[in-house]
Structure formats: structure tokens, C-alpha cells
Design brief:
about 20% helix; about 120 residues
């Protein structure tokens, strides 16, 4: 399936956010387990028609929290009335951010260890 096949890839700027509860497990209409704190963001971007636009965009379980003022990758509908995060973009993809953080931590540890050995 090709969801959002004609949507335009762009970037936006986060203007505000609010926390919402998201439940991972649902069984027969009943919520099971503890809620996960997710965010809804107000994001400003340039719509496909060239006009500035603001929309509410929901954080997905596969994306990291972003701060107010951050630039974020988006997919915007051709009419500019809907937008979603590009959850595969390495700037906000949870696994990509985690992997980059681990690699940076490993490199810093190796550098610290090397300095100790030489010093």
C-alpha cells in the first residue's frame, strides 16, 4: 500500500506542545497497562501552495520527543490540510537517535581511555 503517496516532504518548526496519554495495549475496548506520555505539537510550515500554515501533529511511538523551536521533518498532504512526522527521518526516528547516541558514547569512551593510556 502507498499511504501518503502524493504527500510533499518538507520541514516545519515546532511552536508548542502538550502531553497526551497513549495506551499501547487495548483488549476488547478496554485499556490494559500503563499509559505512555506522548505529545501533540503545533508545527508551522510552508504549505504546498506556498502559504504559511500551522497544524497539530501527533508524536508517533517510533519518534523521539522534540523541543519547542526544533526543526522537524514532515509529510504534508497536497492540499496542506494534514501533516505527519516523517518517522523514518534519522533526526527524529527513535532507533536512529538511540544508535547515534550509543556510537557517540562509545567514541567518547574510547577517546577517554586512549588519553588515560597515553597520559
Amino acid at each position: 500500500m502507498f499511504f501518503r503517496r502524493n504527500w510533499i516532504k518538507t520541514t516545519g518548526r515546532v511552536l508548542d506542545s502538550r502531553v497526551r496519554e497513549w495506551y499501547h495495549n487495548r483488549m476488547r475496548g478496554h485499556v490494559v497497562g500503563m499509559p505512555i506520555a506522548m505529545h501533540n505539537y503545533i508545527v508551522e510550515f510552508t504549505a504546498p501552495n506556498g502559504e504559511p500554515a500551522k497544524l497539530e501533529v501527533e508524536q508517533h511511538i517510533e519518534t523521539v520527543d522534540v523541543a519547542i523551536g526544533d526543526e522537524v521533518p514532515l509529510f504534508v498532504s497536497p492540499d496542506g490540510k494534514k501533516a505527519v512526522f516523517d518517522k523514518k527521518d534519522p533526526r527524529i526516528n527513535l532507533m536512529a537517535v538511540h544508535k547515534a547516541s550509543k556510537e557517540a558514547e562509545k567514541k567518547a569512551d574510547e577517546e577517554r581511555f586512549r588519553r588515560q593510556l597515553e597520559g
